[in-house]
Amino acid sequence: MLDHHVRTRRSAEDFPRTEHLAWKIAQVAADPVSVPPETEAMLINRIIDNAAVSAVSVTRRPVTVARTQAQAHPARHGAGVFGVAGTYSPEWAAWANGVAVRELDFHDTFLAAEYSHPGDNIPALVAVAQQLGVRGTDLIRGLATAYEVQIDLVRGICLHEHKIDHVAHLGPSVAAGVGTMLRLDPETIYDAIGQALHLTTATRQSRKGQISSWKAFAPAYAGKVAIEAVDRAMRGEGSPAPIWEGEDGVISWLLSGPAHTYTVPLPAPDEPKRAILDSYTKEHSAEYQSQAPIDLARRMRDRVGDLAQIEKIVLHTSHHTHVVIGTGSNDPQKFDPDASRETLDHSVMYIFAVALQDGSWHHERSYAPERAHRPDTVELWRKISTVEDPEWTRRYHSADPAEKAFGARAEITLTNGEVITDELAVADAHPLGARPFEREQYIAKFTELADGVVESAEQQRFLTVADELPGLKPGALGSLNVLVDPRVLDKAPTIPSGIFR
């Protein structure tokens, strides 16, 4: 990996395009280096993972809205929309499938200087691949680039400290990945990256306070915008430049300003793209930083016994966990039984209370209104707080995978003064966890979540196609689309008409 130092440059400064971060990313995208077998295998795992979470969310309102919007844009030789037959304009298919993937906060994650869900790249690249009839190996090459670029940006550039949403790293990664997949030249990829970044920067209010369904739409929007950016760049249109380093660019006005230098690692020429291997999926449908606390609560419940004897619980954790999903956020909504599912998903206090009581976590039952309103749950929930522990923060930012941690230490104080303590650094499903996810676990997650939604024969057909992805010929990628039992789709909410019909 090569470290690239990125800072603001004055307009009058001699700063050749070859030094722009967007150009260096474009060079990585255009590098014809082969994809390692382990990267390829994990990409197939994540395609299966995305299908799993799309199946279980297919009748939820935001997913239904996005699907009906996409269905208003049919295209004869277009892309598939999850669950339904037919083909549609690729940017709208990416939009619909991106919302389905993101709705339940249940797919893969990578955390470093910034947050990310790199599986958000998959719907956009698959849609373009289906539209243009590319072969399976080129889709794999494009996804390897998309994962690499997003994860490397996440390693080097923090967005959330400036209240910029993490999808600002997703627009460029989709553009770069599509560029690789379509074997575009560096100049075209460079312009697409610049446009995509310029159009996908937004504030983090979508993840603050009373969180709405836009949390699911935001990444899908970034993928849709990036597809459109690549299309314009392919037609010869340029982009704002230098987009990160410009005097009025992203670093200068949206991030740490002209005095700051960021360090972004990127693969050297001919270096294989392996970043996906540093990411991890979710066993539980909840914000990633609550994955280890859920497993910790399940482990501690037998030691506690009668939960009514709990006086207070303090979770000692990283700065990120404390301020994003903990009491450091200062969000009263995180203690509100009437809060939205999206808000409860970002309350580690609620999540720890329910996991401690139930000894399990479920993508629907754990968030049900009657569950959140249970008097004993509300009482326990409001006894829980978080504090930042510098050691957990240090481990969160560690570059050593063996030391990097996203967990917490729980101190449970009982009414008799006894203190029960335990800690867990990584979730059980993490590559270094007690039960790391391999292909078998990804398939099990898919079959569990698709049960009652996708017929058994269709499940098996899709899994076979996913396994054979590297050998799929041009025009065959439409078979990656999963059809849902129409009787299931009939249960989706009725959506009012909008502009698109």
TrEMBL record:
Record domain MmgE/PrpD C-terminal: where: 284-467
Leader sequence segment: none
Residues in MmgE/PrpD N-terminal domain copies: 19-259
Domain of life of the source: Bacteria
Protein source organism: Mycolicibacterium komossense
Pfam families per record: MmgE_PrpD_C (PF19305), MmgE_PrpD_N (PF03972)
Family: Belongs to the PrpD family.
This protein's name: MmgE/PrpD family protein
